[in-house]
Amino acid sequence: MHTPSAPILYSFADPNNLVDSLARFIIKAQKESIEKKGRFTIAISGGSLAQQLNGLIGKPGVKWEKWQVFYADERVVPLDHEDSNHRLCNDELLSKVPIPRQNIHTIDYSLADDIEELADAYEKELIREFAQKDAARFPVFDLILLGVGPDGHTASLFPGHELLSEEDRWVAYITDSPKPPPKRVTLTFPVINHAARVAFVVYGPSKVDIIKTVLDKPEQGLPPSRVRPISPGQVYWFTDADASAKVEYPRTPFKL
């Protein structure tokens, strides 16, 4: 087993610089992935993260037709519901760029009455994209974008929840989410930790204490601290000055 690399922390005084730098980072990851294997696989979480992706709109060098978009987690609600991660990402980004609709992989809400079947169906979406092409035990996403909740959850992996110990499934379900809506599906740690890159995007003063705990006290085992992609994978943190104000963890100047 390869030893995980230490996280890289970027902190931006200007929120606009964070958005622009994140866009440049994503485009570079996309370019390297397409050159290597002809496609770019990305998983996106919900919450406020989607709002930070609009820096991609109109940027040169984005090959939308090569993107395969999945969701790191999703709330089990209709896709046009205000709680849907897909709706948020669609409103903020996907509806504004020429990405083929068939390259956007959503949950099948028609299966909502049987959440286990719904999770299995979404796992099969991943299998169609990854297992047939990469022959890997777990999918290797080119990039997974995650946020962090004030309670320390990421994707729909909550502190103290039994899903934190899931080792086999690619997609798991939760029916007792500590924050509404209660029914969700989520990528598991084995999937997240096999990614080539994982980037947390966190901003605002409401996150200042939880980010300090995650980065300065990883031994507490909060879910984001458990995101340590196996080598050569790498985890990055894109934060603003408010979110990282109390963090003692060393910052790295952003450059590509």
UniProtKB/TrEMBL annotation:
Pathway: Carbohydrate degradation; pentose phosphate pathway; D-ribulose 5-phosphate from D-glucose 6-phosphate (oxidative stage): step 2/3. Pfam families: Glucosamine_iso (PF01182). It is an enzyme of class 3 (hydrolase). Residues 14-237 form the Glucosamine/galactosamine-6-phosphate isomerase domain. Its EC number is 3.1.1.31. Keywords: Hydrolase. Transmembrane segments: none annotated. InterPro entries: 6-phosphogluconolactonase_DevB, 6PGL, Glc/Gal-6P_isomerase, NagB/RpiA_transferase-like. CDD domains: 6PGL. Hydrolysis of 6-phosphogluconolactone to 6-phosphogluconate. This is 6-phosphogluconolactonase. It comes from Somion occarium.
